[in-house]
Amino acid sequence: MARVRKIPVMERLCEELRNLPGVGTKSSVRIAFHILDMDDERVQSLVNAILDAKAVMKFCDQCFNFSDSNPCSICASPERDHKTICVVEQPRDIMPFEQMEDYHGVYHVLHGTISPLRGASSDQIKFAELISRVVKDDVQEVIVATNSNVDGEATALYIAKILQPFNIRVTRIAHGIPVGGELEHADSNTLSKAMENRREIVLSGSEE
User: Fold this and answer.
1) Reported CATH class of domain 78-200
2) Distance CA 38, CA 18 (A)
3) Which CA distances in Å does 111 have to 59, 129, 152, 195, 196?
4) CATH: 1.10.340.30, 2.130.10.10, 3.40.50.720, 1.10.8.420. Which one for 9-56?
5) What is the average per-residue pLDDT within 39-50?
């Protein structure tokens, strides 16, 4: 019978850290030693913050962003423009827009994109919920802020096509965002210009 290898504590810590996005082998070692250098109180504070966030943060029933309240503070705010919805792929994509402080509408998180190559359809993302909000809230503009890659563009065109009968403005953020780039890595100035210069999505066969 083969013996099960017991993973040393430090190796296990580095392995768990490598599972985090953007953390490679060298980074995981640096973070691991940084944690070991922290006093017990700070380590416990970090652990508690992670556990509390995991226990408390849920999806907002309206926009499907992570929130510690339902609806989230953005959806509940009377100061936001609820007739303008910015559609993003993931919850993390909202933060860059909020940091630039130029956008005052609300959001809708799809939790994915349409991708024929991956077999991902509109049924697997929060698309029906978007249609419901458009109708219920008498929305005037939907800003599509999916990433500038193949799946993001396919999703943007699909949204424009499905929303066409509703006679609302459907726009796409401008390509200040590099092709293939992701919103979470965009700086505030670039994102602000991309939003400012957003354009109407013109469907094939439609008049400009």
Assistant:
1) alpha beta
2) 19
3) 11, 12, 12, 21, 24
4) 1.10.8.420
5) 96
Global pTM exceeds 0.70: yes
Name beta bridge partners: 106: 85
String of DSSP letters for 56-114: H-EE-TTT--EESSSS-HHHH-TTSEEEEEEEESSGGGHHHHHHHT---EEEEE-SS--
Residue 196 confidence (pLDDT) above 90: no
Domains 9-56 and 78-200 share a fold: no
State what percent of residues in the chain have pLDDT above 90. Answer: 67
Residue with tokens 């907002």: 60
